[in-house]
Design brief:
- The structure is a single chain.
- Helices cover about 10% and strands about 45% of the residues.
- The chain has three domains: about 160 residues, Jelly Rolls (Sandwich), CATH 2.60.120; about 120 residues, Galactose-binding domain-like (Jelly Rolls); about 70 residues, no CATH class.
- It is mainly beta.
Length: about 400
């Protein structure tokens, strides 16, 4: 088994269909005069208290109107994609079509047309067909009104359900807390170290800065370098802020970056009058996205994958290699086509040192003897020359 490819793990979208109950109430009409038609709606709010809503100006011959307050839905739903009307279907041979009109409103006064649909209740000797779904193509306002346009064809609605498609974007990005270190070369500057391990390069794509002061605004210059010996390189200028006014708040604490493998980042705060301290920040985090490694296996299964490391660095690594690999595999997103078997350890002892030959054992001694003989030879020549010179002078 050998690795053949490494690539970024792209976000993927997950969609789930949720069906939920929708509280509803029907209406009745109180006609005070021919020109003044008042519609009175009796319902209960989520606390169980009776609520009466009166609407004037309604002039309709509809036999029944159903109202829905979407805030009464217990489930956390943003958009209703389909409304399902349930009624008691009869077993007679009548084929029924119920024309229905859907509208929505924010204030129960002005209504917007959503759609017109037909509900179907077909029944014959061999089969039965009920079409009770009304698809909705847009986001709705708080109140929804269902009107049956033919008062002679109105089903007895016993319950209403909603259907919603909930889409979730699954990102494999992870946030990791890190530390700040005061930089003495620049005023109001702090160094952020992405990784303490010199052997790893994490590809980051964001930095999150969370100040303690909940009413703050900072303009920051970002610099980076790949090692402590390098010079700082300018990257960009960004703004972060946290502003709160009563119940409203506006927050920007994440600086998005193009993916970069730099280990060291410098944050230089420009617009601060006072000196900034490390204690001014609640936390600093960096965001990184893991990569996917694809392996190639040849031959007949089962396959064996070998993990190894230089025996000289084992003492400097935290934990046992076998235990670390076991921890990694429990957290990995592994293809369903692969089943991880038992992880075994084949501890390899350092290779024995080769036996030295006689020449290698005494190499240093022989070298010193040669150097000593050479020095003695030079000394002998110098003494002899000195005697010759002294003899000639005499």
């Amino acid at each position: 088994v050998v690795p053949i490819d490494i690539e970024k793990i792209a976000p993927k979208e997950s969609t789930t269909i949720k069906i939920f109950e929708i509280p509803f109430f029907k209406t009745y009409k109180e006609i005070k005069s021919a020109d003044d038609l008042q519609l009175s709606i009796a319902t209960k709010n989520k606390n169980g208290e009776a609520v009466d809503i009166k609407i004037s100006g309604e002039k309709s011959d509809d036999s029944e109107i159903i109202y829905i307050d979407t805030k009464q839905i217990k489930d956390d739903i943003n958009i209703i994609s389909t409304i399902i009307l349930n009624w008691d279907s009869t077993d007679n041979a009548n084929n029924l079509i119920f024309p229905v009109i859907l509208e929505d409103s924010t204030d129960l006064t002005t209504w917007r047309h959503i759609c017109t649909s037909n509900l179907i209740d077909f029944n014959n000797s061999s089969s039965k067909v009920i079409e009770n779904n009304i698809p909705l193509n847009s986001k709705q306002n708080r109140f929804i009104r269902i009107r049956f346009s033919d008062k002679n064809r109105t089903p007895a609605i016993k319950s209403i359900q909603g259907k919603s498609s909930v889409s979730t974007l699954i990102k494999y990005e992870k946030w990791h807390k890190t530390t700040l270190k005061k930089n003495t070369e620049r005023k109001n500057s702090f160094q952020v170290q992405i990784s303490n391990n010199k052997q790893s390069n994490r590809i980051i794509n964001g930095i999150k800065i969370r100040p303690k002061d909940k009413n703050s605004l900072y303009s920051i210059k970002l610099y980076y370098k790949h090692s402590e010996k390098d010079n700082w390189h300018y990257h960009s200028r960004e703004n972060i802020f946290y502003m709160k006014n009563y119940e409203e708040k506006l927050v920007k604490e994440i600086i998005s970056l193009p993916e970069n493998s730099a280990k060291f980042w410098l944050l230089e705060f420009e617009n601060s009058i006072n000196d900034i301290s490390i204690d001014d920040f609640e936390s600093i985090e960096y965001r990184w996205r893991p990569h996917k490694i694809t392996f190639l296996a040849q031959g007949e299964p089962p396959y064996t994958m070998a993990f190894g490391e230089n025996y000289r660095t084992i003492k400097n690594r935290p934990g046992n290699l076998q235990q670390r690999i076991s921890n990694y595999t429990t957290k990995m997103d592994i293809s369903n086509a692969i089943k991880i078997g038992k992880i075994t350890e084949n501890r390899i002892t350092p290779p024995p040192k080769p036996q030295k030959t006689v020449l290698e054992k005494y190499k240093s001694l022989i070298l010193w003897i040669i150097i000593s003989i050479f020095i003695l030879g030079l000394l002998y020549i110098a003494v002899k020359l000195a005697k010759e010179i002294h003899k000639e002078e005499n």
